[in-house]
Sequence to fold (153 residues):
Amino acid sequence: MRYASTGASRIRTRSAQQPASTPARPDLARHPRAPADIVEDIRCTYLRLTQEELLVLVKVFPITLKPGKQAEVEAIVEEFAPKGPAQEPGTLSFRVYRDPARPDYLLFVEHFADQAAYDTHTGSDAYEELIAGRFAGLITEFVEIDHELLVGI
Fold:
């Protein structure tokens, strides 16, 4: 694993041969209040969040897939999302993007409440079976990039 420091971000590059300790969707149903209540609060109360209150662990993973494996990998990710991230209270967002102009590539963007939430995510049975198991054998390389919040509105 190679590490490179780039200011506030850390980048780790791994090949498919190295063990994966990697790979969340905002879910308003998991919020204690309904969206209408939140909107009403915004209308009634001026709420100023400090940067510390907005800090979350952000993981970004550009992933190169083995040639011709896009559909198979997408099916695994679609199976994983409701079994893993959707069941994890500390997983705030789990998004996987495809690039229509770039076959055999996915971009994962994930937000976690903290490091413990990420550890829970990567230690789940669903993660072990689907991501560390089936998914890992279908990629050629991924880069793990940690981000820190600079500005939040």
